[in-house]
Design goal:
CATH architecture: Alpha-Beta Complex
Largest sheet: 8 strands, mixed
Structural class: alpha/beta
Order of helices and strands: EHEHEHEHEHEHEHE
Strand order of the largest sheet: 3-2-1-4-6-5-7-8
Number of helices: 7
Distance between the termini: 36 Å
Number of domains: 1
Helix content: 25-40%
Radius of gyration: 17 Å
CATH class: Alpha Beta
Strand content: 15-25%
CATH topology: Spore Coat Polysaccharide Biosynthesis Protein SpsA, Chain A
CATH superfamily: Spore Coat Polysaccharide Biosynthesis Protein SpsA, Chain A
């Protein structure tokens, strides 16, 4: 058992949706576990097996026998947002985190969690600095500019993870989206509720596992979905409350 935290948090829950990552899952989870063990508070890792089983369930069961902090959820239906929500619903921590495990290194995860522990009460998110290709970068830029305009956001990377927040920011536990728009919904709620968001720069080069589900059709669906979400989730209030690390 890890020592109890001396600060405001006792337990961090890290939610990891896993979609077609069987070849990389064991190395990934063990790397995360090693990095999380260095934190000054206890931790749990909630893996959400997302979509049809590709052998990941057996791997996770074997890992769970060695790693007592590991919890496993099986969700037959694929969907990033649904997996995030399922993991957050099952999480026990007073500090909560979810991330795209295929693009988050163990060191990045631990560093941002250390930042969240040092700055209690603040939402921490990654601001990714690179993309796989010019076209992916351009598509992301268009989406981010659209979201900034629709929701009066000051964030530069809507979909950047890890996203880390205290359980006391309870409105973030009422996320509704089952799809990729959950990250936009997350930041729109932060904007509406006045939660302070700190963006930390993260260098991303390439995926280290899994299969990306982003394509032209899904991108167009996100562009249109952002407009519809803006009608359902209007944002009012003062100026955006986002700070950035340089």
């Amino acid at each position: 058992m890890k020592r109890r935290g001396s600060g405001p948090y006792e337990l961090v829950s890290v939610v990891l949706p896993a979609y077609r990552q069987a070849p990389y899952l064991e190395t990934l989870v063990r790397g995360y576990e090693s990095a999380l063990a260095r934190l000054p508070i206890q931790h749990e890792v909630v893996i959400v097996l997302n979509g049809p089983d590709d052998g990941s369930a057996e791997i996770c069961q074997r890992l769970a026998s060695d790693l007592p902090a590991l919890r496993i959820l099986k969700r037959g239906k694929a969907g990033w947002g649904g997996a995030v929500r399922a993991g957050l619903d099952a999480a026990s921590g007073d500090l909560l985190c979810y991330t795209n495990s295929a693009r988050t290194t163990a060191d990045t995860l631990a560093t941002l969690l250390e930042l969240a522990i040092a700055l209690p009460g603040i939402v921490i998110k990654a601001n990714r600095k690179t993309r796989d290709s010019v076209w992916r970068h351009l598509g992301s830029l268009v989406y981010n500019l659209e979201c900034r305009s629709l929701f009066d956001l000051s964030n530069f990377d809507i979909n950047g993870t890890p996203k880390i927040f205290p359980r006391s920011n309870e409105r973030l536990l009422a996320l509704q989206r089952d799809d990729d728009l959950i990250d936009l919904e997350f930041l729109a709620i932060c904007r509406r509720e006045g939660y302070l968001v700190l963006e930390a720069p993260v260098v991303v080069t390439r995926r280290h596992g899994g299969v990306s589900t982003t394509n032209l059709r899904s991108a167009i669906r996100m562009y249109g979905g952002a407009v519809l979400l803006a009608r359902r989730l209007p944002v009012h209030g003062g100026p955006p409350v986002t700070a950035r690390l340089q």
